Amino acid sequence: MESCTFCSIIADREPATWVEREEHAVAFAPLPGSALAPGHTLVVPVVHTADLLSADPTSLAACTALARRVGLAMRGALGATGTVLLQASRADAGQSVPHLHFHVVPCWPDDGTTHWPEPPSAHVHDGDPYGDLRAMFE
């Protein structure tokens, strides 16, 4: 997609600090000034996919497998003792680039941060949310 920042990076029309390039997924550093930690890496499908809900199985599998390998590399190369995998789909979830991407963020005991959402959602669901979810699979 011509107007997609990540598609432009994948096509080498925009510069990137590459970590890994594979057939169905790539990994690169976030845009300058937006890293959450040293080594924070984005994992992105090569095929333009807007978000998690529209991802094809091949792209999704390639991204999660690459995210795992990036996490292992963070442990080996950076001494990370933990890893957070962040993914937001659509604007209401905080997605800022409309191309599926996963943030792989290394963590250490002394980094003084947490990447868990606080506070929890204030949204109220009328009924049993898990029963309603379960019904979607029947």
Percentage of helical residues?
25-40%
Strand content: 15-25%
- If classified by CATH, what would the architecture be? 2-Layer Sandwich
| Helical run tally | 3
Task: Please provide a written account of the structure.
This protein is an alpha+beta fold. It has a single domain (5-135), classed as HIT-like (HIT family, subunit A, 2-Layer Sandwich). The protein has helices at residues 5-10, 57-78, 129-135; strands at residues 18-21, 25-28, 41-45, 82-86, 102-107. Strands 1-2-3-5-4 form a five-stranded antiparallel beta sheet, with helices on one face. A hairpin with a 3-residue loop joins strand 1 and strand 2 (25-28). The longest helix is centred in the middle third of the chain and has 22 residues, at 57-78.
Task: Please describe the structure with a list of short key phrases separated by commas or semicolons.
138 residues; alpha+beta; HIT family, subunit A; 5-stranded antiparallel sheet; 3 helices; 17% strand; globular; Histidine_triad_CS; HIT domain-containing protein; HIT-like_sf; Histidine_triad_HIT
